[in-house]
Amino acid sequence: HQETLTLLWSFIVSMYCVGGMLGCLCSGYLTAKYGKKKCLLFNDVVLIVAVLHTGFSKRAKSFEMILIGRFLEGIGAGRIPHYSIAHIQYAGEISPKKLRGFVNVTSSVFLALGKAVARILGLRELLGGQSLWPMLMASCGLPALVQLVTLPFFPESPPYLLIRKGDLEGYRKAIRQLWGEGRHQAEIDDIMKEKATMKNTKILSVLELLKDPAFRWQLYMIVILTATVQLCGINAV
């Protein structure tokens, strides 16, 4: 029945957001405990499992597989705050100081490029037709697979190794692997300053943050901007 189809389609569309909300609940804890590199690798596995469900759903004649795939994709996107944020942080932390700003900007460029490519591939003349849509839904697994294969050859973020783990030897090894054997005292000084700052900084709970008058106007600004983005019509488009 048409009403049943509409309900199922609404569930499929909404399941991504449900998974995203659940993923966000554990994103901060997992990133702090296991580091950005391990979390990105785990996210790649989740996304590959998700696209296997969506990609083979038509062959299996199972809309439940689309629901599961969309839910897992949402968890993957939400666990590392919208996924791209961890990439930006990791890329910035492993970059030399003189290239850090450039690397952070390129992340936004590739994010916009990815959205544009996805829109183009979604045209009915390409992968958005009746026969090829499973390939379109599974296409996001390709970048995840490439990252899953290549990222293990990169070290963990030096700030994470030194600040969170206190692993001085691992920190030095990562520095040498990333930046060579030269002098990198400026980058090292920045990380040491960050470590000293974190020691003297109290981690606030959500309730304490809401009650602290020093952050009130910043919170107002963030809430207004976030709500405006959600209400501007981009999700409808």
Automatic annotation (TrEMBL):
Transmembrane segments: 6-32, 39-56
InterPro entries in the cross-refs: GLUT, MFS_dom, MFS_sugar_transport-like, MFS_trans_sf
Keyword terms of this UniProt record: Membrane, Transmembrane, Transmembrane helix
GO MF terms, alphabetically ordered: D-glucose transmembrane transporter activity
Domain of life: Eukaryota
One Gene Ontology CC term in the entry: plasma membrane
Protein name per the record: GTR5 protein
Organism encoding this protein: Centropus bengalensis (lesser coucal)
